[in-house]
Design goal:
- The chain is built from ten helices and 16 strands.
- With 325 residues, the chain is of the alpha/beta class.
- The chain folds into two domains: 2-122 and 271-324, Medium-chain alcohol dehydrogenases, catalytic domain (Quinone Oxidoreductase, Chain A, domain 1), CATH 3.90.180; 140-263, 3-Layer(aba) Sandwich (Rossmann fold), CATH 3.40.50.720.
- The strands form three sheets. Strands 3, 5, 6, 7, 8, 15 and 16 form a seven-stranded mixed β-sheet that branches. The protein has a six-stranded parallel β-sheet with strand order 11-10-9-12-13-14, with helices on both faces.
- Pfam families: ADH_N, ADH_zinc_N.
- One of its GO terms (molecular function) is quinone reductase (NADPH) activity.
- Residues 12-323 form the Enoyl reductase (ER) domain.
């Protein structure tokens, strides 16, 4: 079986992403042949491509997709040809029109949820699920801080936090992105281009600071995030779009209010099959109920994956981005 897939011979800039023909064979035991209709784009893919996360070369790229099952391998009984499914995680290689995927990673797409929305929401939604529900203990009325509030994860986080009754304060860049974040359930939205983030967070929280800060930016925001936290607050570092944050000294956490620092990943929170299924199910349940509304800001042809990466890294995207095979 010949697939058209984005491949990398080496890690580097967006130009290393090349569309190639690849012989993928037929599905083996426990595997499924999936004709992919939409592929999600995530900053994780940028880390894989750039070398921030080393990979054995050559390699595919991409971490999630949705589509229709064409064939199943021996032993696969819970899925059948024609089923609409989505997946996230596993070995990079989701940027493709056809792919062989382990059946255990596939989640059925509910009626009423499009393939494009499924590809745009699954990985990001599962990230929001573990961040808000399991990485910390948030209660209704708590104040929390979220960077990149107009990004794919950020918009979903605002909606999910509103559903939980959490007062989520968003940070975005520019009035248009702030407007989008405000429309997605945030308690308040700050413009990092003009607002003093620390003083505004302290004012909004009555001087206490945020109980939790979700920081996906890294190096550029580390000091600000520390100052925004309340006594015994939790710093959740889950990305590094500006570069890795500095090493965290125990004495700094003590001096700034007995703070906690954690660097969680979706892989660890969904490594068990039951956790993976429960997290994905929670995402699709809230999409089906209209609580989560995926926002697809950009669509690119599969061959234009490099351009999509360039736009994502330069901050020229909003909401989720998908590639169309």
């Amino acid at each position: 079986m010949i697939a058209h897939a984005i491949r990398m011979e080496t890690q580097g800039g967006p130009d290393v992403l090349k569309l190639q023909e690849v012989d993928i064979g037929a599905p083996g035991p426990g595997q499924v042949l999936l004709r992919q209709t939409a592929c999600g784009l995530n900053f994780l893919d940028v880390y894989h491509r750039s070398g921030a996360y080393p990979l054995a070369m050559p390699s595919g790229c991409g971490s999630e997709a949705a589509g229709v099952i064409e064939a199943v391998g021996e032993g696969v009984t819970s899925l059948r040809p024609g089923d609409r499914v989505a997946y996230q995680g596993g070995e990079p290689g989701a940027y493709a029109d056809l792919r062989i995927v382990p059946a255990t990673r596939l989640v059925g797409i509910p009626d009423g949820v499009s393939d494009e929305d499924a590809a745009a929401v699954l990985l990001k939604g599962m990230t929001v699920e573990y961040l808000l529900n399991r990485s910390v203990q948030l209660r209704p009325g708590d104040f929390a801080l979220m960077y990149a509030a107009a990004g794919g994860i950020g918009l979903l986080a605002g909606q999910w936090a509103q559903h939980l009754g959490v007062n989520l304060i968003g940070v975005a860049a520019g009035e248009e992105k702030c407007r989008r974040a405000r429309s997605s359930g945030y308690f308040a939205v700050l413009d990092r281009n003009r607002d003093d983030i620390v003083s505004q967070v302290k004012e909004i929280t009555g001087g206490r600071g945020a109980s939790v800060a979700f920081d996906s930016v890294g190096k550029a925001t580390f000091d600000t995030t520390i100052e925004c936290l309340a006594v015994r607050g939790v710093f959740v570092s889950f990305g590094a779009t500006s570069g890795p944050p500095p090493a965290v000294e125990a004495s700094l956490l003590q001096k700034k209010g007995s703070l906690y620092f954690t660097r969680p990943t979706l892989v660890h929170y969904c490594s068990a099959p039951e956790d993976y299924a429960a997290s994905a199910g929670a995402v699709f349940d809230l999409v089906g109920k209209g609580v989560l509304k995926p926002t697809i800001g950009q669509r690119y042809a599969l061959a234009d994956a490099g351009k999509a990466h360039l736009d994502l890294e330069s901050g020229h995207t909003s909401g989720s981005t998908i590639l169309i095979p």
